[in-house]
Amino acid sequence: MARDTTDQTPVTSVADLTAYLASGARPKERFRIGTEHEKFAFFKADNRPVPYFGEASIQALLTGMAARNGWEAIIDEGNVIGLADIHGNGAISLEPGGQFELSGAPLENLHQTCKESNQHLAVLREIAEPLGIGFLGVGGSPKWTFAETPRMPKSRYAIMTRYMPKVGTQGLDMMYRTCTIQVNLDFSSEEDMRRKMQVSMRLQPLATAFFASSPFTEGKPNGLLSWRGDIWRDTDNRRSGLLPAAFKPDFGFADYVEWALDVPMYFVVRDGHYHDCTHITFRQFMNGALRGEIAEWQPSMGDWTNHLSTLFPDVRLKRFLEMRGADGGPWRKICALPAFWVGLLYDDEALAAAEALTRHWSFEDVQALRDAVPAEALKAKLGTTSLFDIAREVLTISRAGLKRRNRLNGDGVDERQFLAPLEEVLAKKSTLAEDLLALYHGRWNQSVEPIFTEYQY
């Protein structure tokens, strides 16, 4: 999230919070696709991470991008920590360790999404190359220790850095040493939200397996295929993972609100300053817990919006749905992730087929699969069924959904082309993580250094 909101509309009841989520519903013809992708910045000369300050730095990249795109700088305590298109068509933000993120514009089809990513990376390379900076697209930092990883001067991250060790063992690694690709998708009603939430929550471990690309930590194999996926198993379990309520037949906006109300807050923003609120939940905030601690202690809709952005379930509900299971990856994977979910969720027949396939998967079934996938990827099993076999069936459903959407580019080609990287995974029976491990034990001579040249954007 590039910019924390400052909407001062008072919150008067829990019903206000539910209504906020419900207000995201829109007609199907107005459904859009918003893709986010993160990448690690490094110096090409020696594969060191790029600091925030300095002549060749993250700050310099942001300044250069602002001049090139004409985007507005987002300032936090005097530091540029992101950029926003003045017309609302996308933003650039920084993750805690300097991971550089594009939050894409809401677009109508996947051809536009892929073009947007390609244009962003082209402009970024134009700014970065004179500074000797490159970008790596994988799910976990393959070389740098936590101590070597830079920290971005973003106020919310300072609060999170202090808080994470209190609530889990891997929260700091999540913040500083992982990258993801995500897609944000719309819903038309509470029922439509429920169906999409339930299907995508059940299938999120499959996305983790398909996109597994984080087998290295500090220069060595870590025994996993998705280190990032494993990190999320113990980051902050009160605000992340699977949501039991989402498996209820009547799950709705109010259920998500009730869960969110009892998750500890990170902060509130007042007059541009961040106040640490990790000692209270949003429900306690609404009941006056900050009275006497800060002058403007009453909750606003901006506070609620910011709180929603600090919740990390595998599928996050705002006024849209965020698919959060995938590792970061190369350029083609940036296009493949939204294609996978759009094919499943934006076509009525595909959504019905995905529902039929997953309807009887219990919370316990999906949790067991989620626990197995970081180490086993597509070799994991749901009961006695191989995830590889499930992947073939799900990809067939997605492909058919994209065919029925029939969104064509200028050459008359539909959106199915963007599923090619996932079809290759199934054809080879090997994820990117397994390909990387084969290179490490083979041509790379047990070194991760070549990943910075062979897998940079």
UniProtKB/TrEMBL annotation:
<keyword id="KW-1015">Disulfide bond</keyword>
<dbReference type="GO" id="GO:0006750">
    <property type="term" value="P:glutathione biosynthetic process"/>
</dbReference>
<keyword id="KW-0547">Nucleotide-binding</keyword>
<keyword id="KW-0436">Ligase</keyword>
<comment type="similarity">
    <text>Belongs to the glutamate--cysteine ligase type 2 family. EgtA subfamily.</text>
</comment>
<dbReference type="InterPro" id="IPR035434">
    <property type="entry name" value="GCL_bact_plant"/>
</dbReference>
<keyword id="KW-0809">Transit peptide</keyword>
<keyword id="KW-0317">Glutathione biosynthesis</keyword>
<dbReference type="InterPro" id="IPR011556">
    <property type="entry name" value="Glut_cys_lig_pln_type"/>
</dbReference>
<comment type="similarity">
    <text>Belongs to the carboxylate-amine ligase family. Glutamate--cysteine ligase type 2 subfamily.</text>
</comment>
<dbReference type="GO" id="GO:0004357">
    <property type="term" value="F:glutamate-cysteine ligase activity"/>
</dbReference>
<comment type="pathway">
    <text>Sulfur metabolism; glutathione biosynthesis; glutathione from L-cysteine and L-glutamate: step 1/2.</text>
</comment>
<keyword id="KW-0067">ATP-binding</keyword>
<comment type="subunit">
    <text>Homodimer or monomer when oxidized or reduced, respectively.</text>
</comment>
<dbReference type="Pfam" id="PF04107">
    <property type="entry name" value="GCS2"/>
</dbReference>
<feature type="disulfide bond">
    <location>
        <begin position="114"/>
        <end position="335"/>
    </location>
</feature>
<dbReference type="GO" id="GO:0005524">
    <property type="term" value="F:ATP binding"/>
</dbReference>
<dbReference type="InterPro" id="IPR006336">
    <property type="entry name" value="GCS2"/>
</dbReference>
<comment type="function">
    <text>Catalyzes the synthesis of gamma-glutamylcysteine (gamma-GC).</text>
</comment>
<dbReference type="InterPro" id="IPR014746">
    <property type="entry name" value="Gln_synth/guanido_kin_cat_dom"/>
</dbReference>
<protein>
    <recommendedName>
        <fullName>Glutamate--cysteine ligase</fullName>
        <ecNumber>6.3.2.2</ecNumber>
    </recommendedName>
</protein>
